[in-house]
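Onboarding guide, step 5: your first structure request.
Type a short instruction followed by the sequence, for example:

Predict the 3D structure of this protein.
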Amino acid sequence: MATAMRTVSEGVAMSLKVVPRNDFVETPAVREITERALAYLNADIPIHFRGAAGTGKTTLALHTAAQLGRPVALMCGDEEVGTSDMVGGEYGYHYRKVVDNYIHSVLKYEEDAAKCWADQRLTTACREGWTLVYDEFNRSRPEANNILLGVLEERLLVLPTTSRDSAYIKVHPKFRAIFTSNPAEYAGVYQVQDALGDRMVTLDLYHYDRDTEIAITSARAGLSLDDAQKIVDIVRDFRATGDYTDTPTLRSCIMIARVVTHRLRESIAWDEQYFVTTCLDVLGSKVDSSIERRENQKSLLVGLIERYCR
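The system replies with structure tokens like these:
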């Protein structure tokens, strides 16, 4: 799916100001899932976009967040992420020294040190009422994500600090949370703990309908709808065969279309060698390295290109 937003750094890159990009396509299918997500968010219920690669999870998350009109704190799940990376911590010391020599024969000397606290994205979002977009959150270890349990349910963020005055903060009423994950991924992911999954509503994303894929491909590559239709039909028919290692997604359509846009003179023709080669490069990479299988896929793709572009 097309990238829904253009992001601009704000402040110290802690938040993103998201605005719709010019080539964003909002078809009835996209509008329907966005409206469902906003209904839950407006009721202060976190949402979770779940889908395979290429189904537009992050794009839709940022697009939905933009509708709320609040700054966005973007976090990405990672094995190395810990609670302090999300919340913040005490880093270094603030020193204070007082020397009193008002009476020249008496010297008073006082010195103390206090630990300095620094917020991270989750804390800032909770404190300021921003929208949290936590992309691929199940790539972080469950124990790191446990800090979210109190935030989403009790609206309370417990801080790992020794200060009594700032041991916790109440979550701002306008704070909202959007999560994304890929259930088909097999490497570097963790099972979502029940307590966290129970606090959000999961919206499953699948490959879009043909008209939506055509509209997005055309908009992202600056290609005519007729030519975008040919590319989408080739990719969709190849996807329907199921004979591949990695699923050809909308990204494949956009890759082919962008190359065509740079080199196209008239309309796509099936016998234009660069177009055939581009399709073979992009879609052929979705199958394994077996020579026999790649030759079979090449024959299949050439047949599809001839069918739709002759």
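Each response can be followed by summary notes, for example: Residues 287 and 294 are 7 Å apart (CA to CA).
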